[in-house]
Write a structure and sequence with these properties.
Length: 567
């Protein structure tokens, strides 16, 4: 059996940062990914990464306050303090590894403004920041000889009495199923954006890690907090980075008005994402739209700046909607972008609480978009996600190594675990007479779009939940047409669909439960934030049976009491 001290599931920025930290200390570490590592979704990150550097008069307390306010006071302030305090050092680490950040006119690391922040503290590589960091990080992974299982698909966590001791995974090239033993497992499996359509996320963002942890007994937290990004391209939903507004682009409606004046007179287009997305939907609903969209206007930035700093979105707008952003405004609307909720962890990535405040799975850690530490609360600030991946990727590796050195491998029967997974897969392959995977997937996404959009109501969310539960039944008979072993992507899509349905159900259950409007969760039937009753996180556990069990934990407040949120 394959065996490691620390096994990292996921090779995006969170996974690579975790694997690198573990490898540097000499641990026997492996990283497993369903796609070739540099094709992980972190590759798509465009605008940048936040850090408050003191040499330009910034201060991590200010970054932390902006993050707390951005989160609509749902973020845990102890975790936010950790992230913002450690950001500067981590940024310098990235630069020393070889990330070539853009420079300012004086030759120092350059910054651009991002939404919801009073200072320009976003460091960037043009509009390909994720790609630049991911490639540099992968060089380090190769340098430290991390064992990489690439194009392996993890299907289940091996657990016994609430402890995780490895995973079962399919080698996609051969279709063989293996158990991999590890003293500590770190989930860095990314987001779930494809539960909705369209989405800015890649097809691989199917919430697998959240579902795996949930099935193994770990709680999912604040799943109702799904971020709609204000500038996604008409039709395809492809992202046009907030970096464009950071560089000074405007939002205009069909009358040519910069409508953000009415919604956020101080921060205008750079108010936080939930605020801007709601403003756009209000404009669209009031008829100030063009074909269901408003417009992003970059023309006044000038061709030189656009081609230097926004060349990727220039290309995307040209290729996908035929608009040259140096000459014309481009049609955009809010689209699903990021999951603030996820697997509940402490500030060291632990998916269980050693002091017993909440339950979970021992030996299991999580970092990045799959986790909920919670540093984003009800609304993530742009460029805080890449920061989250590297800070909590590193911290989870440190804690996982401590755990691995203090504990032996879990004993389990390889035959039983592998045999069980093979039987589950065979049952899917043997199905006949059910729906195609793509049909159920589209029905799920449609139900979620309709019920859990920018504005929500009890009836709409209940309708989506009922529909998703119906799809969970249909999923049992879903048809996998490809019966082969090598690269059976049809089977993988089916397994991913099972994960997405778990996530969709959790999003709707959390949404119905939270009877207030906070951050991205905006209810027409409970339009106000309710600090008296809802300064708490919602934890969801699977079971017993098909039920979802709820638990509440208070928000951690260190220095910033809730206040009215204006931009
Ligand atoms: C278009 C776009 C632009 C963005 N721009 C920015 C930005 O400028 N700044 C910012 O801060 N944030 C940005 N974000 C958000 C940010 O990119 C992501 O939140 C972050 O990169 C997630 O990193 P991650 O390491 O958690 O996951 P990912 O990079 O998504 O990696 C997940 C990994 O898990 C693996 N995996 C998943 N399931 C399985 C399985 N079952 N078996 C095996 N492997 C599995 C995948 O193969 C992959 O390697 C952007 C997001 C999008 C969509």
């Amino acid at each position: 059996m394959y065996s490691h001290d620390v096994l990292v599931l996921g090779a995006g920025l969170a996974g690579m940062r975790a694997a690198l930290e573990a490898a540097r200390s000499g641990a026997n570490v492996a990283m497993l990914s369903k796609v070739y590592p540099v094709r992980s979704h972190s590759n798509a990150a465009q605008g940048g990464i936040n850090a408050a550097l003191t040499d330009r008069g910034d201060d991590w307390h200010e970054h932390a306050y902006d993050t707390v306010k951005g989160s609509d006071f749902l973020g845990d302030q102890d975790a936010i303090e950790v992230m913002c305090r450690e950001a500067g050092q981590e940024l310098i680490n990235l630069e020393h590894m070889g990330v070539i950040f853009n420079r300012d006119d004086e030759g120092r690391l350059g910054t651009r403004a991002f939404g919801g922040q009073r200072r320009a503290r976003t460091f960037f590589v043009a509009d390909i920041t994720g790609q630049a960091i991911l490639h540099v990080m992968y060089e380090q992974i190769l340098k430290y000889n991390v064992r990489v299982y690439d194009e392996w698909y993890a299907t289940t966590l091996i657990t016994d009495h609430g402890r995780c001791g490895g995973v079962v995974a399919m080698e996609m090239r051969t279709g063989e199923v293996h158990a991999i033993r590890a003293k500590a497992v770190i989930l860095a499996t990314g987001g779930l954006g494809r539960v909705f359509e369209p989405s800015t996320n890649a097809l691989i963002c199917t919430g697998d890690g959240m579902s795996l942890a949930y099935r193994a007994g770990a709680p999912l937290m604040d799943m109702e907090m799904v971020q709609y990004h204000p500038t996604t391209l008409k039709g395809s939903g492809v992202l046009l980075s907030e970096g464009a507004r950071g560089e000074g682009a405007y939002l205009i409606n069909s009358r040519g008005e910069r409508f953000m004046e009415r919604y956020a007179p101080n921060m205008m287009e750079l108010a936080s994402r939930d605020v801007v997305s709601r403003a756009e939907i209000t404009e669209i609903n009031e008829g100030n739209d063009i074909d269901g969209c408003v417009l992003l206007d970059c023309r006044h930035l000038g061709r030189a700046k656009i081609m230097e700093r926004l060349m990727y979105i220039h290309e995307v707008a040209m290729d996908l909607v035929g608009v040259d952003i140096t000459k014309d405004p481009v049609p955009i609307r809010p689209g699903v972008h990021y999951q603030m909720g996820g697997i509940k962890t402490d500030v060291d990535g632990r998916c269980w609480d050693p002091s017993g405040g909440w339950k979970g799975v021992e030996g299991l850690f999580a970092a990045g978009e799959t986790a909920c530490v919670s540093v984003h609360g009800g609304n993530r600030l742009g460029a805080n996600s890449l920061l989250d991946t590297v800070i909590f990727g590193r911290r989870s590796a440190e804690a996982a190594m401590d755990y691995a050195s203090a504990n032996n491998h879990l004993e389990f029967s390889e035959d039983n675990w592998v045999g069980g997974e093979k039987a589950t897969m065979q049952a899917l392959l043997d199905n006949s007479g059910g729906d195609l995977v793509a049909k159920v997937r589209l029905d799920m996404a449609t139900a979620m779009d309709e019920g859990l959009g920018v504005y929500r109501t009890e009836e709409g969310m209940q309708r989506a939940l009922d529909a998703v539960r119906g799809m969970k039944d249909r999923f049992k008979n879903v048809i996998v047409q490809d019966k082969g072993k090598a690269f059976n992507t049809n089977l993988i899509f089916a397994l991913e669909l099972g994960c997405m349905l778990d996530c969709a159900e959790a999003i709707a259950v959390g949404g119905i439960d939270r009877k207030e409007s906070r951050g991205a969760h905006s209810r027409l039937d409970y339009a106000a934030r309710d600090d008296e009753n809802w300064m708490k996180h919602i934890l969801l556990y699977q079971g017993p049976g098909d039920q979802v069990t709820k638990e509440y934990v208070p928000i951690v407040i260190t220095q910033w009491q809730p206040e009215e949120r204006k931009y």
